[in-house]
Design a protein that fits this description.
Structural class: alpha+beta
InterPro entries: Acyl_CoA_acyltransferase, GNAT_dom
Radius of gyration: 16 Å
Protein name: GNAT family N-acetyltransferase
Strand content: 35-45%
Largest sheet: 7 strands, mixed
Bound molecules: coenzyme A
Organism: Polycladomyces subterraneus
Number of domains: 1
Strand order of the largest sheet: 1-2-3-4-5-7-6
Order of helices and strands: EHHHHEEEHEHEEH
Distance between the termini: 18 Å
CATH class: Alpha Beta
Pfam families: Acetyltransf_3
CATH topology: Aminopeptidase
CATH superfamily: Gcn5-related N-acetyltransferase (GNAT)
């Protein structure tokens, strides 16, 4: 029903459209950070993706009407081969799909892919305190709140507390064994 695959040049227009949407950009990055990336920068980033890159972008797709429909994008950055850790970003760009469980399902698929393919020890992410839906989604996927960086997240509505969350391989394994 849900899959995650590497982003390609054909996905750039769609990702760019999502990033230009004010509401998506606000929740994804507080606003400016998401929409400030130009089409050419996105294209360059995706063209430059190699399997050994320290950052990679992926697409979230769902099975609909007999085909795969892209509804969001996710990524990792700061791949650290020594500590076996990454920081991830995750967004369902199609707003009509928010709040229907797709984000949770897709994030689980992404987390499985990261732990399995990249043999990670730890996955980290962050958001701002107001983004309750994202925090709930991350918790459902096993992420634990690890810290608060006070007023470290700039948004178009002012500075917000940055919530840092992490998922360890051992917890992911335990969760899978219990499923
Ligand atoms: C955050 C996001 C990935 C979550 O995906 P989703 O498909 O919308 O979320 P799900 O439906 O799987 O789960 C959302 C959960 O949050 C809950 N929720 C929704 N709004 C909420 C709110 N205001 N306060 C508390 N919980 C809320 C839902 O009830 C659901 O929990 P439940 O299953 O226990 O009822 C998606 O909404 C999104 O991409 N939003 C815009 C960009 C963004 O916020 N990206 C994250 C940046 S860090």
């Amino acid at each position: 029903m849900v899959r995650v695959r590497l982003a390609t040049e054909e996905d750039v227009s769609l990702i760019y459209r999502w990033r230009q949407d004010e509401e998506v950009a606000y929740w994804a990055s507080g606003g400016h950070g998401y929409s400030a990336v130009t089409y050419s920068q996105l294209l360059e980033r995706i063209r430059g993706q190699r399997s050994d890159s320290r950052s990679l972008m992926f697409m979230v797709e769902i099975r609909e009407d007999g085909g795969w429909k892209p509804i969001g994008a996710c990524s990792f950055r700061d791949f650290d081969a020594v500590s076996r850790s990454v920081i991830i970003g995750f967004t369902i760009g199609e707003k009509s799909y928010w709040g229907k469980g797709y984000g949770t399902r897709a994030l689980r698929v992404f987390v499985d892919l990261l732990f399995q393919r990249y043999n990670l020890h730890r996955i980290q992410l962050d958001t701002f305190d107001e983004n309750r839906r994202a925090i709930r989604c991350y918790k459902k996927c096993g992420f634990v709140r690890e810290g608060v960086l006070r007023k470290a997240f700039w948004t178009t509505h002012g500075y917000r507390d940055k919530i840092v969350m992490g998922l360890l391989r051992e917890d992911w394994e335990k969760n899978r064994a219990g499923q």
